[in-house]
Specification:
- By secondary structure, the chain is of the alpha/beta class.
- The protein is 32% helix and 23% strand.
- The strands form five sheets. Strands 10, 17, 18, 19, 20, 21, 22, 23 and 24 form a nine-stranded mixed beta sheet that branches. A six-stranded mixed beta sheet has the order 4-3-9-25-26-27, with no helix packed on it.
- The longest helix has 17 residues.
- It is globular.
Amino acid sequence: MRLFSILFILLLITCCSNKEQVDLIVTNSKTYTVNNAFETVEAFAIKDGKFVETGSSEDILAQFEAADVLDAQGQTILPGFIDAHCHFYGLGLQQQRVDLVGTRSFEEVIKRVIDFQNKRKTNFIIGRGWDQNDWEDKQFPNKLLLDNLFPDTPVALTRIDGHAMLCNQKALDLAAITANTKIDGGEVVLEAGELTGILVDNPMEMVEAIFPEPSRQQQIDALLEAQKVCFDLGLTTVDDAGLNRSQIELIDSLQQSGDLKMRVYAMLTNNSDNLDYYLPKGKIKTDRLNVRSVKVYADGALGSRGAALKEPYSDKHNHFGAMVIGPKAYEKLAERIANSEYQMNTHAIGDSANRHVLKTYKNTLANKTDRRWRVEHAQVITDNDFDYFEDDNIIPSIQPTHATSDMYWAGDRLGEERVKGAYAYKDLLNKHGKVALGTDFPVERVSPFLTFYAAVARQDLDKFPEGGFQMENALTREETLKGMTIWAAYSNFEEAEKGSIETGKFADFIILDKNIMEVPVHDIPNIKVTATYVDGVAQ
């Protein structure tokens, strides 16, 4: 009997030793793998920061052992969200500036500026987030009140979309902007020949050039604050749409030191310094940083009437908006990028801008394969221009919350017929087969759950409009999840390493308190992330 017991114990030890040692096992979950079959599984194993295997809890526990076994207690698990178009560094800086998002009047804007200055006492007041379309008086504001309140302190308040700015006279003087200033690709807005303080698109750069440069510590704080916001909401990769070399090198250094764990797909800001340095150097790729694209602006924004349209604005006759880069210069830039390893990602809002971008992409990439050039926003498409997206080289990169933010006034800008081709996400998906989804934060709120809700319900948080905005262009939940994970990864050339829960990919995943694929649609915005994992480690 004793011999039998010894043999039994040895047999148990032998059986146990046949199990593969891993770092983490997760069981008893409803995990949406977002693999090609869109399978759900109960469990998975992680080793060295990567998924090793997925399957049932019983099978995973039979094959693997780990000191850390997490019973998910039936909770929903998804691949980490990817925001395919945002301003990660800008979000961090915004935490150090006047937050004007959600202001319901110009008077509220002024109050927030005064409150901020009373607390901070800065020598240059910078803010962002106002939107005159949310006010009772929907006209652009004027600088007169800012001049009276802050005669000796420069003030620059950027509109929520980043394409218009209100400045006081002190800021305009420091930037050498007068009523005679003329700049292509934008407007210095005048009334009766006098400066109003409103700058649209390119003239804004003259004021931004005199902004105080944040210290290195302020930049580090900005990145780490943005990371915390994003991790709390389940984002594990962000596509930052416009960074300079110094910012990219700081991000890389913080990632190498282990302080910044967020994965960043960096789009270069389109300037000669960046292009002259990076294009000859070639793409730069680490596990956390990917530098292989250039962010270019074709036109401005619809809200500030800077989007370039084929026909005049319906609410401002004889006004067509403007391209911020000349057609010939744009085509020359496209050729230069095409001759490098880099991807071209162009902001295009109006139907005229989209037409020119799409034609240029088509012609420039005619004899090239797998370039995945992106049209950022692809906001207003008319005529047969949707057909350009049938090209494998041209990807629509879209932000669903723009539709629910803009729907109150987009019809006024575009008219009843033209607006049907705006925010047409299903039409874009049907043409290309994939859409990359993002938020454009801090233009919109960071939450991926608002992105998901806007894509599926096409309503705002007040459930307006009843029945949804142009519901023929709503996405299904499966399409939306793919757009926020595997399709976004594809748009970054990263589908082999992230975007789904599959063997060999980075173990980036999130745990939710409710099942986003099954809850009533109006519960989606209230879903909470209970844990965010990067490389299999909770953040």
